[in-house]
Amino acid sequence: MNSTLRAPLSLVVLLSLAVVQSSLSQVNSTSEIRLDPRVQKIVDRAVQRALEQFGEKKLEANELAVTLVDLREPNKPAQGSYRGGEQIYPASVIKLFYLVAAHRWMEDGKLKDSEELRRAMRDMIVDSYNEATGYIVDLLTDTTSGPELAPAEMEVWYEKRNAVSRYFTSLGFQNINVNRKPWCEGPYGREKQSVNLHKPNHRNWLTTDATARLLTEIVSGKCVTQERSRQMMELLRRDPFNPKAETQSREYTGKALPEGAKLWSKAGWTSETRHDAAYVELPDSNRFALVVFTMNHANEKDIIPTVVRAVIEGFDQQR
Question: For residue 20, is pLDDT > 70?
Answer without folding.
Answer: no
